[in-house]
Design goal:
The complex is a heterodimer of chains A (163) and B (263). Chain A has 163 residues and is an all-alpha fold. Chain A is built from seven helices and no strands. The chains are: A mainly alpha (163), B alpha+beta (263). At the A-B interface, helix 1, helix 2, helix 4, helix 5 and helix 7 of A face helix 1, helix 3 and helix 4 of B.
């Protein structure tokens, strides 16, 4: 197997993790990963060195944005389940809370936060993946964190349309 | 507070995310010790990150579903390409067979008709291609020398700008009985496509003659053991102008280059 393909293969578990957190749905997430891999393998000749992992995150992030845009024709509210308040108790409540909190974020903020805290990318790498300056990455992070904090502390922010 | 530079919110994020150089880290830590509100924010952000990792971190330990196996996806990709290539080859075999039988049964004494049949098949197949109508772009300097060499005769692509047609480029095709054929493709501003198909053929010299093949019309002629077929939309008057121009240009240049390169 070529070094390129090996690099791709090694990245799959992390890509699945990122996609799962991004979409919060197992099937949708693996569909995204599959599309990402197919696209990457097809574009092997376009890849001129650099970090394969960052490149894969970029493809996946873009594919997910395209997916949401095509869904956005119909106004879609971030899926929050039947009630939009954090659970009060239960061992799973923390996990479900964070899931719901993530669901209320604007897409670019969610992606920036997940790339940093879940995938461990540097600000510079996230800027590369999102195609924006580092300052924009930092303001996305700041807004995401403020929003989640407000959500978890019960000052329920208004539902936002997923862009 | 003895820090030299004031601590901003960005510093707090960079601190949580390990993006600060050690000296600045210490300044932030000193700041947090005396600013409980900021310390609470930092703690909340860390708790969020922990919760996110606790919720999704274990995904990396799940077995990867077989549909995501790289070797399999790569194979599927190349299998698809092979199937597409085989499809083209098969379409050609059909076209060539149709041309050959047509030739054998109806037009045995007219090899030019066989070339015309191949040409119309190639025209139909490639004008429908949106992404890969040609193999080599018109701008590439090796297009003409390459096709001329492979076909075995000087093949300057005629300039059909006066007819409103732009040369897109060309490709090499397997003609009947082992003769390589060149296909030049032209396009009008409105997207109509015309092709010029040329190959060696033992056909007596002849002036362009028209043939209607349903949607596609073509003019074929032969000269010095080279047969050429110009195909396009079945509009005889229009096609006659285009074919006439191509015919005259090839005629002139063949005469000229024939004298220069007697090889």
């Amino acid at each position: 197997m070529s070094g390129f393909r090996q690099g791709i293969e090694t990245a799959i578990p992390a890509l699945r993790r990122y996609a799962r957190a991004l979409t919060r749905d197992v099937e949708t997430a693996d569909d995204l990963v599959q599309d990402t891999l197919v696209r990457a393998l097809r574009s092997e000749h376009l890849f001129h060195g650099g970090d394969v992992r960052t490149w894969l995150y970029t493809i996946l992030t873009n594919l997910n944005r395209n997916r949401l845009r095509s869904l956005a024709r119909r106004p879609i509210l971030a899926p929050l389940g039947e009630e939009d308040a954090p659970d009060l108790a239960g061992p799973e409540s923390g996990a479900r809370d964070i899931e719901r909190a993530l669901a209320t974020l604007v897409e670019e903020q969610r992606a920036a936060l997940l790339l940093v805290v879940l995938e461990g990318l540097s600000y510079r790498e996230v800027a590369q993946v999102q195609g924006v300056p580092i300052g924009t990455v930092m303001s996305r992070l700041a807004r995401a964190r403020a929003h989640i904090r407000a959500f978890l502390e019960g000052e329920r922010p208004p539902l936002r349309r997923v862009k | 507070m003895t820090n030299r530079t004031p601590i901003h919110e960005e510093d707090l994020h960079a601190y949580v995310d390990g993006e600060l150089p050690p000296p600045r880290r210490q300044e932030v830590e000193a700041w947090l010790a005396t600013h409980p509100e900021d310390a609470a924010r930092v703690a909340a952000w860390r708790a969020q990150a922990e919760a996110i990792r606790a919720r999704y971190g274990a995904v990396v330990n799940e077995p990867v579903p077989s549909r995501l196996a790289v070797e399999r996806l790569a194979r599927a990709g190349s299998a698809w390409r092979r199937a597409a290539a085989a499809g083209v080859a098969f379409a050609f075999a059909l076209g060539a067979a149709a041309g050959w039988f047509g030739h054998a049964v109806w037009e045995a004494p007219r090899p030019l008709a066989a070339v015309a049949t191949e040409a119309v098949e190639a025209h139909r197949l490639y004008i429908a291609e949106r992404r890969h109508p040609i193999e080599v772009q018109a701008g590439e300097s090796h297009l003409i020398p390459w096709l001329s060499r492979r076909v075995g005769t000087s093949l300057p692509a005629p300039d059909l700008a006066a007819q409103g047609l732009r040369l897109l480029g060309g490709r090499l095709l397997p003609g009947l009985s082992g003769h390589a054929a060149a296909l030049f493709m032209y396009e009008s501003a409105s997207g109509e496509r015309f092709t010029l198909y040329c190959r060696r053929a033992k056909a007596p010299g002849s002036a362009p003659s028209y043939r209607d093949s349903g949607q596609v019309g073509s003019f074929s002629w032969a000269r010095e053991e080279t047969a050429c077929v110009l195909s396009g939309p079945a509009d005889r008057a229009r096609l006659e102008g285009v074919a006439g121009s191509a015919y005259r240009q090839l005629e002139q240049r063949a005469t000229r280059t024939g004298a220069l390169t007697a090889d």
